[in-house]
Sequence to fold (219 residues):
Amino acid sequence: MTKIKEIFASIQGEGPYLGYKQVFVRFCGCNLKCKYCDTDFNDINALEYTPQRLAEVLENFTYCHSVSLTGGEPLLSVDFLKEFLPMCKLPVYLETNATLPNELKKVIDYVKYVAADIKPESATGMVTPWDLHDKFFDIAKEKELFAKVVFDENITKEEIAKSANLCAKYDIELILQPKMSGKEFVINSDKISEILDKFLVYYPKVRVIPQTHKFLDVE
Fold:
């Protein structure tokens, strides 16, 4: 069994699959403590599910494009996922901080989409785990993989170069997500454009997509 904070159908608001209807399964717990995190993934009022029970619940959401496994960090529940994923009838969209490559290896065969964060220290307040991101991408590269960077005006030239070069290594799309406070950006549009240009010096497959679900006022 594992604790799940919530299960709900909504509109994907981030990345290249924005606008698709998904069913979101939010797992409790995370191995990181990003200072900008605005997600409630603690286990207060969470419910425990068996793999079989979660598969049964998701049969009510067959109209959705895919099931988004999110959190927190869903790969912390890898033993649960190893049992659940073979029973899941929806395409699996994994939202992850891309720091647990060994856990990913155990379930990658059942995953179709991987939305992988790159965690710059300027935004998270933690040292960027570049080596873990690299190992993670190497495992996920055969899937529909893209990377996401949450940033503000403090992002450094080194972080820009390393993020862009890492995505170039695996030839994957890089999504820049401006940091927000509620529905407001913490960085102005001119600065967003300037930072995008700095990424494009290193790699062409980069674009800016904000958290559109906040503008739509959906979860």
Summary: The chain has a mean pLDDT of 93.
